[in-house]
Design brief:
It is built from four helices and five strands, in the order E-E-E-E-E-H-H-H-H. By secondary structure, the protein is of the alpha+beta class. It has a domain of 89 residues: Non-ribosomal Peptide Synthetase Peptidyl Carrier Protein, Chain A, CATH 1.10.1200. The longest helix has 15 residues.
């Protein structure tokens, strides 16, 4: 069984997230399929990103930081620059969403999956399910 960071073909698995899913670079066949669609851009359908998907991505970010805790929707977290870059990467790779860095004041308010979801739903309501 390959250990952490082992190269498996063209896939590098960095670590397993608390959900048990591998964290790292995924081949196209392992990407999360769209749950729902809202618009078509450049001939392809874009996924509407859900609360559960945002929470899972945040859990992956925390796992990469070696934080051993279960991440729920309202779990208090700290989004540092590394976490934000990972969030940008995952949203781009899995959903084709180009997340631009917010102002520092906004970054300081991103302290849970709920707050991240609320921010994303505010800036792109056509791509994110409305936050509760």
């Amino acid at each position: 069984m390959p250990g952490e960071g082992a190269r498996l073909g063209r896939t590098v698995i960095v670590k397993k997230a608390p959900s048990g899913h591998p964290v790292g670079t995924f081949p196209r066949s392992r990407r999360i399929p769209p749950v729902a669609t809202s618009t078509k851009a450049q001939g392809r359908e874009e996924a509407v990103i859900t609360r559960e998907e945002i929470t899972a991505i945040i859990a992956e970010c925390m796992a990469l930081q070696m934080i051993e805790t279960s991440v729920e929707y309202d779990t208090q977290i700290a989004i540092d620059s590394f976490s934000f870059v990972w969030l940008q990467h995952v949203l781009g790779e899995r959903f084709g969403y180009d997340l631009q860095p917010p102002d520092i004041d906004v970054m300081q308010t991103l302290n849970s999956a709920r707050s991240v979801h609320r921010y994303l739903a505010d800036v792109s309501p056509d791509r994110f399910v409305a936050a509760d």
